[in-house]
Design goal:
Oligomer: heterodimer
CATH superfamily of the largest domain in chain B: Aldehyde oxidase/xanthine dehydrogenase, molybdopterin binding domain
Radius of gyration of chain B: 28 Å
Shape of chain B: globular
CATH topology of the largest domain in chain B: Aldehyde Oxidoreductase, domain 4
CATH topology of the largest domain in chain A: Ubiquitin-like (UB roll)
Largest sheet of chain A: 5 strands, mixed
CATH architecture of the largest domain in chain B: 2-Layer Sandwich
Structural class of chain B: alpha+beta
InterPro entries (chain A): 2Fe-2S-bd, 2Fe-2S-bd_dom_sf, 2Fe-2S_ferredoxin-like_sf, 2Fe-2S_ferredoxin-type, Aldehyde_Oxdr_Iron-Sulfur, Beta-grasp_dom_sf
Order of helices and strands of chain A: EEHEEEHHHHH
Radius of gyration of chain A: 16 Å
Number of strands of chain A: 5
Strand content of chain B: 15-25%
Number of domains of chain A: 2
Distance between the termini of chain B: 69 Å
Strand content of chain A: 5-15%
Keywords (chain B): Signal
Protein name (chain A): (2Fe-2S)-binding protein
Number of domains of chain B: 3
Shape of chain A: globular
CATH class of the largest domain in chain B: Alpha Beta
GO molecular function (chain A): 2 iron, 2 sulfur cluster binding; metal ion binding; oxidoreductase activity, acting on the aldehyde or oxo group of donors
Strand order of the largest sheet of chain B: 1-12-11-10-13-3-6-5
Number of helices of chain B: 23
Number of strands of chain B: 32
Largest interface: A-B, 56 and 70 residues
Helix content of chain B: 25-40%
Strand order of the largest sheet of chain A: 2-1-5-3-4
CATH superfamily of the largest domain in chain A: Beta-grasp domain
Structural class of chain A: alpha+beta
CATH architecture of the largest domain in chain A: Roll
Organism (chain B): Bradyrhizobium cytisi
Largest sheet of chain B: 8 strands, mixed
Chain lengths: ~170, ~900
């Protein structure tokens, strides 16, 4: 057993004793009841289980939770799909996913949302040129599987958020 | 825990068990119901302005929606702790199963309960006919199929379960002894479809399944495959007649006739997994000692699930026999047919029954889902086509199909018939003879999956058509145009489609598209990079021939609308489609849409009997004398019926509310007396921005109309049931002194804020039982173009550009139609190029398959920026919606095969065409 403390969506959890081989996915879903993070394959291939990890240096990245032990997240700060909306207000990307009809069954949505959010935040720190945008989005989202949509509307939603605030996400063109 | 009178819907007499497909008493405000009713009163509804789905907010905020999201402590009245079960499956089907070695599970890892075949004997369960066979393979027998369950292991705590499943991961604890070879079992069904047209399109057919019925050869147990000959001994007379004509057609194709181009080709398709992202899951709690069995499930067929559970336990002995079964149904994380009639739910129930007093969760992981989930049928096909060389007109077609149905019958016979009747695709062919047989094997069970047989046979056909066009030196689109079935032309079963046939329009679109126009310009048949273009055009039936829906619509005094429907949301957007379709009658988007609800219609008092597919006319005529009788009460959300059937009853209920609620309210507000001619002109009224408008009269807002309807006791709610057997049932009801006719067969209304009251139909016309001879009468067309680039050195294929054009009548939610089309395209690409499961020992039944090994199309496999989807506008503003969820995945598959041939000169006759296979032929 290991004592685990972490911050989820800005709220501290723990210290709590967990088995060393308990997956982060089961920690969230079974111990905390936070089932917004999904279980898809248990092999880090579909990434419907992905969450955001906020690093101390201000950067963020996504991590699968199905194959990662919960203890790996000790001391870390993470965000899950339940934490994207603030004070009852949906995030820009959440709104874009809805407006673009980006998802169908919605089981992969939490993973795409986390990945898209990390991309937005990365681009806000390190913008890319407009001509590199499509490939940047494609590279970012390619690890995520969706069986319903064919991915296009997810990509369009992310792209439209970026283009709607191009000064923030794209390198200024002369 | 008994359902209240209001919530009580349908009780099935199943050996004394009361089956309530309802929510728990007082569940109206319970968390589960609240979660499943979207978006919820007062909550933001993106659909209101057409800017999203009714389930949009719930899905982007991680709300508990799916069966896999719920634990016992989420459900009111349940114990707080959840126990967990593992369903152990056989990973061998050629040796005798001898039992499990659980010695590796020590201490806390020991299961609290082990459920085996012997326990089921003790309990007295019975397997529903649809899942015939041993629910658990008993020790001493060879498993009927790979993945057959052998036991349930139940653990009281999550930690015990979690550690045990890791310890058992490699499956070696399931022990086998003597080699026996696979268990042999009879085939699941064999049919012959033969049609000989008359001398001209206007003349009656010489012979057709519509005229003569569907025929099967007599089973000969000494042969692996049916003996199709009409001369075989003791063949049924009806079969012999079809077979004689069929063999004449084959003889004509085999004759040495220089005027006829005859191609004789084989094609083989593979087994694939639906790969819906949410593995199957369920939660159940049996209070014990004859109390209630409560379940939370996620299936495409809730009514069937409840019936099967009732049958399972109908003869159970005390104390295992529940008094009542309450099943609640959740959103589904993908279905694609794989959750339609799934036996998984039986094991969820058994886990609870054998661990009374404790809520038990049974959830597949992905390995288990591959091992036990329903698969698509692999089909081996041999097709012969004869074409008049002078005219390019197809004269005859014959084919033989052999389907591998895997371990249980499931829908194999149905898939075989759909595959067979789809075998001539969009074409008008005067002489057709197709045999089909679905075989048992030791493979994982195959059943319903998007495309349902038609995907396989139309892929083979469209590859054959492409080859024939090449042999005749005809343009492939022109060849298709010459032979396309026209409106009112007869299908293989001898009936015409009763919906629009827009093949010519689609072929025109394909022909004019730049991908096709530029095919010669882009083609590269030599060099390091090969480029080719392919085309295909298909049609796919929608509906299963006995489809129905239940719908309840309520209008509040403030104008708020609530909709309840028995069909299931599995991503298909049915909740939003319901809201939109009801809005055409009531002028506003509902703010409560509750799907997968099989409760709430009890006032209709529906009863049913017999099998809607096989009953004769006399039986139906006698049964319909009971005004509460219908051929079927509820059907699965499958066969692309969501838009067409799933929304129909709710739309008709809304129509009743408008006609007998809002319209009389409007007359009052406009002060138009009943004697005024305008009082009968409700058809001239229309909704604009939430206001009911009528030429020359002041617009009326919905809240004002609703308030008036409530105050005056007009109709403010309606419940309807509808049934379709390639045509809707039609009934007449006496409403407010006038006969009201509608395409429904049962109706209840609510006046003001009163209670719902049943309106017994005064007459009814159900579709004739002879319609069961129809293959399909509903169909949607879709065409595809694709340009591929193939690297000679590696065989890597890139889809450079693609175009898909479809027709679907009125699109209830156009954005969802486009999204489903894009998703269908992606699934088609995966089927054509990536996905495959080996049969038998190396296949998924061994429990070792997961993503990574099984390849599903990712974004990088698809032309995300170069896929164009075009949806044809409906022919008329009121054209009903057509099913399109399946057809959109079909044509891209043969189009890819044809494009690969265009680029490489090699015609692949098996799927998938992987990069390694391409590399092999290009070496």
């Amino acid at each position: 057993m290991t004592t685990l403390s972490l911050t989820i969506n800005g709220r501290k959890h723990g210290p709590i004793d967990v088995r060393d081989d308990l997956s982060m996915n089961d920690f969230l879903r079974e111990m905390l009841g936070m089932t917004g993070t999904k279980f898809g394959c248990g092999a880090a291939q579909c990434l419907s289980c992905a969450i955001i990890v906020d690093a101390p240096d201000g950067t963020s990245y996504t991590s699968p939770t199905c194959v990662a032990p919960a203890v790996n997240f000790d001391g870390k700060s993470i965000r899950t799909v339940e934490g994207h909306a603030k004070d009852g207000q949906l995030s820009v990307l959440q709104k874009a996913f809805i407006e673009h009809f980006a998802f169908q069954c919605g089981y992969c949505t939490a993973g795409f949302l986390g990945e898209g959010q990390v991309l937005l935040e990365r681009l806000s720190r390190a913008p890319v040129a407009r001509e590199a945008l499509e490939q940047t989005i494609a590279d970012a989202l390619d690890g995520h599987l969706c069986r319903c949509t064919g991915y296009i509307k997810y990509h369009e939603a992310v792209r439209d958020v970026i283009l709607a605030d191009s000064k923030r996400y794209l390198v200024a063109t002369k | 825990m008994r359902p209240s009178r209001r919530e009580f819907v349908k009780w099935l007499s199943a050996g004394g068990i009361s089956v309530s497909l309802s929510h728990l008493a007082g569940a109206a405000n319970a968390p589960f119901a609240a979660h499943e009713t979207l978006p919820g009163r007062g909550n933001f509804n993106p659909a209101t302005k057409g800017a999203g789905r009714v389930d949009g907010v719930a899905k982007v905020t991680g709300a508990k929606l799916y069966a896999s999201d719920f634990r016992a402590n989420d459900l009111p009245g349940w114990p707080r702790t959840t126990s967990h079960a593992i369903l152990v499956r056989a990973n061998d089907a050629t040796h005798v199963y001898t039992g499990m070695d659980l010695a590796g599970l020590k201490g806390a890892l020991k299961p609290s309960v082990v459920v085996t075949a012997a326990d089921l004997d003790r309990v007295g369960t019975q397997a529903p006919e649809f899942y015939a066979g041993d629910l658990f393979c008993p020790p001493g027998k060879t498993p009927l199929y790979l993945g057959q369950p052998v036991a349930l292991l139940i653990f009281e705590t999550f930690d015990s379960f979690d550690q045990a499943r890791l310890a058992l991961r490699d499956g070696t604890f399931v022990r086998f002894g003597e080699e026996t070879g696979p268990v042999m079992a009879p085939d699941y069904g064999s049919y012959r479809f033969t049609r000989v047209a008359g001398p001209s399109p206007e003349k009656p057919d010489v012979y057709s399944p519509l005229q003569a019925g569907w025929v099967s050869p007599r089973k000969l147990q000494t042969t692996a495959l049916p003996v199709w000959s009409s001369l075989a001994k003791e063949m049924p007379a009806d079969y012999a007649k079809a077979a004689k004509l069929g063999e004449q057609i084959r003889a004509e194709l085999a004759a040495d006739d220089a005027s006829l181009l005859v191609l004789d080709r084989e094609f083989e398709t593979q087994s694939v997994d639906p790969m819906f992202l949410e593995p199957e899951c369920g939660l159940a709690w049996y209070s014990g000692k004859g109390g209630n069995l409560e379940l939370v499930l996620g299936v495409q067929s809730p009514y069937e699930a409840a019936e099967s559970l009732a049958f399972l336990l109908a003869k159970a002995r005390a104390p295992y026999k529940p008094t009542q079964i309450n099943a609640q149904f959740a959103h589904v994380g993908g279905g694609f047919g794989g959750r339609d009639h799934t036996p998984f739910i039986l094991y969820v129930a058994l886990a609870a029954i054998l661990f009374p007093g404790k809520p038990v969760r049974l959830a597949h992981d992905r390995y288990q889902q591959f091992q036990g989930g329903i698969k698509r049928h692999p089909i081996k096909m041999r097709s012969r086509i004869g074409i008049d060389r002078a005219t390019g007109i197809i004269k005859a077609f014959a084919a033989d199909h052999v389907l591998d149905g895997g371990g249980q019958a499931n829908f194999s016979a149905n898939v075989a018939t759909v595959a067979a009747t789809a075998a001539i695709g969009i074409y008008d062919i005067p002489k057709v003879d197709v045999t089909t047989v679905a075989l048992h094997s030791r493979g994982v069970t195959a059943g319903s999956m998007r495309g349902y047989g038609a995907l396989q046979t139309m892929t083979a056909l469209e590859a054959l058509i492409d080859e024939a066009a090449g042999e005749l030196q005809l343009d492939p689109i022109e060849f298709r145009r010459r032979n396309a079935l026209k409106q009112n032309g007869r299908t293989m079963t001898g009936n015409p489609y009763i919906v629009s046939v827009r093949t010519p329009e689609i072929l025109d679109k394909l022909e004019k598209h730049p991908i096709w126009q530029q095919r010669a310009q882009f083609r590269q048949a030599s060099g390091d990079r090969l480029v080719g273009t392919g085309v295909a055009c298909v049609t796919k039936d929608y509906g299963a021939g006995a489809d129905c829906s239940l719908g309840r619509v309520e209008l509040g005094p403030d104008g708020r609308i609530a909709i309840f429907c028995d069909h299931v949301e599995m991503g298909n957007g049915i909740g939003t489609a319901l809201a939109n379709r009801v809005a055409t009658h009531l002028g506003a988007i509902a703010d409560e849409v509750s799907i997968a609800r099989v409760d709430g219609y009890d006032v209709l008092g529906l009863v049913t009997s017999g099998d809607p597919y096989t009953m004769d006319q006399k039986t139906q005529d006698a049964a319909q004398g009971n005004p509460r009788w219908v051929p079927r009460i509820s059907s699965a959300t499958s066969a692309s019926v969501g838009a067409h059937v799933g929304t129909h009853s709710s739309a008709e209920a809304a129509r009743v509310i408008f006609r007998f609620g809002l319209w009389p309210a409007a007359l009052e507000l406009w002060r138009i007396p009943k004697t005024d001619a305008r009082a009968r002109q409700w058809a001239n009224a229309s909704w604009q921005d939430g206001q009911l408008t009528m030429p020359g009269l002041a617009p009326l807002a919905l809240p004002a109309l609703a308030a008036t309807a409530h105050a005056r006791g007009f109709v403010t709610g309606a419940i309807a049931h509808s049934f379709s057997r390639w045509a809707w049932s039609r009934a007449r009801f006496a409403l407010f002194g006038e006969p009201y006719r509608a395409e429904i067969d049962a109706l209840a209304i609510r006046r003001g804020s009163g209670r719902f009251e049943r309106i017994n139909r005064s007459s009814v016309k159900f579709p004739p039982t002879d319609n069961n001879r129809i293959g399909t009468a509903y169909t949607s067309m879709c065409g595809a173009l694709v340009r591929v680039e193939i690297e000679r050195a590696t065989g890597a294929l890139r889809i450079a550009k693609a175009y898909s054009v479809l027709e679907c009548g009125t699109a209830l939610v156009p954005e969802v139609v486009i999204g489903q089309s894009q998703g269908g395209f992606a699934m088609g690409v995966g089927y054509a190029l990536l996905e495959t499961l080996p049969p038998f020992e190396g296949g998924p039944g061994n429990g070792e398959w997961n993503l990574g090994r099984y390849l599903v199309a990712r974004g990088s496999d698809l032309p995300l920026r170069d896929l164009e989807i075009e949806m044809l506008k409906p022919l008329t503003p009121d054209e009903p919606p057509k099913g399109m969820a399946e057809v959109v995945m079909v044509p891209i598959v043969p189009a890819l095969i044809n494009a690969i041939h265009d680029a490489t000169g090699h015609r692949f006759r098996a799927l998938p065409v992987t990069s390694s296979l391409l590399k092999g032929v290009l070496a």
